Amino acid sequence: MDLKTKINTGLKQAMRDKDAARLATLRLIMAAIKDREIALRGEGRDTGLEDAEITGILAKMVKQRQESARTYEEGGRLDLAERELSEISVIEEFLPRPLEQTEIDAAIAKAMEDVGAASIRDMGKVMGALKASYAGQMDFGAVGPMVKDRLCAGA
After folding, report:
1. pLDDT at 55
2. pTM (predicted TM-score)
3. Are 79 and 10 in the same domain?
4. CATH number at residue 125
5. Same domain assignment for residues 25 and 72
6. Mean pLDDT across the chain, nearest whole number?
7. Cβ(111)–Cβ(149) under 8 Å?
8. d(Cα 18, Cα 2) in Å, to the nearest integer?
9. Claim to verify: residue 63 and residue 114 sit in the same structural domain
């Protein structure tokens, strides 16, 4: 079962369960997916989104909600922050599990080997390979400095 079908199944189940908060979040996810599909049709691509593209959308949604929750907490709006955090938990159900540090280290080493990275100039290639293979499984903001350190140490 592809990811879009899983999300749709979850949406239908939330309707049956009358879970308004979960239903609203799943509807937001489906709207984001449909927006992306419409944008791709405008670019001449009529096929649906692949699971990796949907995972990227979900990862972006999680990141947006984390930033919003942080902002709400700083502003003293804990009720809104709590709502954002509950949306994150629903979205994360459809993301692959996050990688452990050892798995991240191995993924970086493999990506560097695959693209033949030899210097800091190859950082974009390495990050691109990691994003293509591990979207939603690692925090690329934290992984970037690790890749940079390895490339600088190898130079």
Report:
1. 87
2. 0.73
3. yes
4. 1.10.10
5. yes
6. 88
7. no
8. 24
9. no
What pLDDT is attached to residue 155? Answer: 52
Question: Residue 83 is part of a domain; what is its CATH number?
Answer: 1.10.1510.10
Ranges of the chain whose pLDDT falls below 70: 154-155
CA distances from 126 to 98, 141, 151 (A): 19, 14, 10
Give the count of domains, the chain.
2
Residues whose CB falls within 8 Å of the CB of residue 54, separated by 6 or more in sequence, listed in order: 3, 4, 7, 33
Do residues 128 and 82 share a domain?
A: no
pLDDT for position 49? 82
Distance CA 139, CA 25 (A): 22
Identity of the residue numbered 62: V
For the chain, the farthest-separated pair of C-alpha atoms sits apart, in whole angstroms, at 58
Domain holding 114, by residue range, is 101-154
